[in-house]
Amino acid sequence: MPAPIRLRELIRTIRTARTQAEEREMIQKECAAIRSSFREEDNTYRCRNVAKLLYMHMLGYPAHFGQLECLKLIASQKFTDKRIGYLGAMLLLDERQDVHLLMTNCIKNDLNHSTQYVQGLALCTLGCMGSSEMCRDLAGEVEKLLKTSNSYLRKKAALCAVHVIRKVPELMEMFLPATKNLLNEKNHGVLHTSVVLLTEMCERSPDMLAHFRKNEKLVPQLVRILKNLIMSGYSPEHDVSGISDPFLQVRILRLLRILGRNDDDSSEAMNDILAQVATNTETSKNVGNAILYETVLTIMDIKSESGLRVLAINILGRFLLNNDKNIRYVALTSLLKTVQTDHNAVQRHRSTIVDCLKDLDVSIKRRAMELSFALVNGNNIRGMMKELLYFLDSCEPEFKADCASGIFLAAEKYAPSKRWHIDTIMRVLTTAGSYVRDDAVPNLIQLITNSVEMHAYTVQRLYKAILGDYSQQPLVQVAAWCIGEYGDLLVSGQCEEEEPIQVTEDEVLDILESVLISNMSTSVTRGYALTAIMKLSTRFTCTVNRIKKVVSIYGSSIDVELQQRAVEYNALFKKYDHMRSALLERMPVMEKVTTNGPTEIVQTNGETEPAPLETKPPPSGPQPTSQANDLLDLLGGNDITPVIPTAPTSKPASAGGELLDLLGDINLTAAPAAAPAPASVPPISQPPFLLDGLSSQPLFNDIATGIPSIIAYSKNGLKIEFTFERSNTNPSVTVITIQASNSTELDMTDFVFQAAVPKTFQLQLLSPSSSIVPAFNTGTITQVIKVLNPQKQQLRMRIKLTYNHKGSAMQDLAEVNNFPPQSWQ
């Protein structure tokens, strides 16, 4: 058989291939020749064939069929064969294959070989791919070589010991005696590998860490070695860019970091040397920067002195001025980790950090943005927000969402005034409105609602912000909501913070109608605009007919959400006009409640309280009536809990259509969010459309059908009269309309009517038409009560009345038991 080609010839031939297919053909042809040679047990060229096979393996072609040939080379007595055999074993074998166990005995023999280079090959192979079984079997030989006087073998044995400890941590104590004299070695290779071994032992075992701190006095030895490296003169063997053995310095600094962490004595012993390294290391080369960076990490991780920590942060500040992007990125990342513990020291480099926002590298920009937000406090909020708003205006789209959220949080926490807070958030919405997160709109609405003195200023600013530009949808949504709430302030020109603008009611409606028909408006934005127009029907006086016309037009919209709102608003104009002003009154001041988890509002007979959401699945069938709340207990005894009547909630206007859902038949199993139905209520059969606006059948029987009215209360000039209606769609529902009148000479203010019924009933209070009962019977307050009586039992009710009259607070309880039979049978 002819002699196989040499490795150099194979490489030259493969490199001449013009295509991947041609290269693959060459490789397959050579692999076939190598297989034939292996089958013939050709010992002469086995080394050459395995070398070629390793080259093919490096190119990504399969070479597993050469594994056993590697073992044969390892067993050879020739050094050249052993060298290729061990190299092949490291590349082609690993501990997942049982074949590697066959070489354990060969490695053991070579570890005891008389030639140091053969011993070195065995140590390298064991340290590279030795399994836990091999490490257990050969740890004793490694430990012997670790104590030898040959520095060539000691450095390789130290690295092999690291691999053994990683595979079998319980063998760590075996190497402890051998580590005592390792740091006294003058050879830098042995020192380097010894520090790696000690680092591994300290990281893996707290007991070893304590032993090296107390018994071995490791810190003084490391300090001595590091000091010698800094003070030593030029050594061509170890010099890298003018610095003596930077690799060893970095390893020592990492080990010092582990030893000094949470230990006062060790930290004290290394403070001086760390200060020397930080001040004497040359920074003109990247090598010096690497050592300084490790020094900074060590200083920040141990219990170092405050002056030393300031020195470390100043080094990072100098890194920010470096032309190398990697060094700037590393500095920003390190400062971000230390800003919480050394805030004032980092603040000194604020201007440099802000300048990094203008960097062209996106990674540096992101780190600079995160660090800038971490530096914001009450003293620098105005300047930092100015820079961050400028960054928001010019940054890439992927930064805008995070930057906007950061500005919102910082402004909420450190805002110097409410006007500044509102202006800042409006600037964000104007600049990056389309990128803000979903919670930005309700949060700004809440802020505006709570800033009572800023209502006129805010609505005027928002009105001017959306004139002719509807591209920023969150801004348009907030503007629509504010115009709907405070449109009367906009028209009256009551703004004191800046020069008021002259706006007519028709101009305001023109803007909102433009939002409704704009192609840029989303369905949610249109909902805001329609609800705002509806609210203006109680705030404007000259354009109510125009508002009715706009609302009626959208009753046939193809957008179902918009259509439902419009139909319900039409019903409010026609059937419930007496309640329109109460339903559309201004939002009360909202309280921001922070909870540990999501909550829902559970309302029973008008009482509202947050309750944690349960993760249990809803029951498949109707809940028994016995589980309903015992509502009479709410008003029983002396401990009387006031019942909160249903009022417009603090939910943004996007849910405005749900406000009127209560005006139709009661749906006690799936009440809308604006006024949820009482908990644990059995389901009621009813049409799916709550207002029943598309049905020609009237919702309730006429009052003249024979249900007489009753006087429920008459005392101290206050008279409460009940009138009754029965639902056509659900006979179990009785609708009671109360009318409160006042025959005294003074108004009764802050009037609140509350009611409770036995637990076999369910009761729901709607909003009253007013809170003032006019004197001399010149007007009345009306309020609607819905009572569900599925068992057709005699109706009983306890009522509670609270109001202010003649400067004093009045409160009274009464029982109502004289309901006519027609109202409940």
Automatic annotation (TrEMBL):
Region (Disordered): 600-630
Entry keyword set: Cytoplasmic vesicle, Golgi apparatus, Membrane, Protein transport, Transport
Domain GAE: 705-820
Main location: membrane
Membrane topology summary: Peripheral membrane protein
Keyword flag Protein transport: yes
Pfam families linked to this entry: Adaptin_N, Alpha_adaptinC2
Compartments where located: Cytoplasmic vesicle membrane; Endomembrane system; Golgi apparatus
Key word Transport present: yes
Family the entry assigns: Belongs to the adaptor complexes large subunit family.
Name by which UniProt lists this protein: AP-1 complex subunit gamma
Source organism of the structure: Ceratotherium simum simum (Southern white rhinoceros)
Protein encoded by which gene: LOC101387219
